[in-house]
Amino acid sequence: MATDVKELMAKVGKIRILTNRLIDDQLAGDYHSTFKGQGVEFDEVRPYIAGDDVRTIDWNVTARTGVPYIKRYSEERELTILFMVDVSGSQSYGSRTRSKMELAAEVTALLALTAIRNQDKIGLVLFSDKIVKYIPPRKGRDSVMRLVREVLAAEDEAKGGTDIEGALKFLNGVQKRRAVVFLVSDFIEGGGKREDDGLEKLLRATARHHDVICVPVSDPAESALPDVGLVELEDSETGELMLVDTSSAKVRGAFAAQAESDREELTKFFRKTGIDTLEIATDRPYIDGVRALFKRRARKR
Length: 301
Description:
8 helices; two-stranded antiparallel sheet; alpha/beta; 301 residues; single chain
């Protein structure tokens, strides 16, 4: 956790250097071909050529000149990228060198810096079981570092459960213009359960207006218990305590089986919604996943 301003700024600087290098080395050019603009805008008229779509004929110009002309359009490139980052209690967990929150900050920085390089706007919603902070979309490299600082700073106060539905309702209320939305969360709600029916409907409704990408964050220790004898486990979202005998192979097996079942259910859930996903974990590099997402979406276009 960031314990003071100096340590926080050091983390922000480290993330900036890391993500800038990744963009230069591996993402240059991929972003532009991945995301669609807000629509199309008129570009010019030119003479009709055999094979052109007759629906694009500009009848006013054609009538004035006596020669058929068509309208040409170009994609309106400027995008609004909105990062919705879960800062609930479970996001502060990390069994390796970084927490899920720090990983979320890194990926947010990577995507935000890439967006800014393409002259797009970026904004941020931090949420737990309530809206913690909202930064309206704007341009500029300073906006990126502010987003990263806010995500990292939220780790010190990460607590409470996760209300993804409430966060999506907030998004739909404040963001009227179409945006690309990265929903970054471990998708663990209080007690480890999600109300999938309501969330699925709301995600589908949101995806009809916005371009939604879900970014599930995980840590390997969430799927396997170490053999360390009696330990007291705390649900970081509900505060519930439980004494567990990790020396029992049966207990460890049941824990692993439940974790696997939860993963499968989450995968099925995303598949049902038809929404793109970018899976990231604290124990592995995320750049390959980002590149795969970009290429997958570029092929769809």
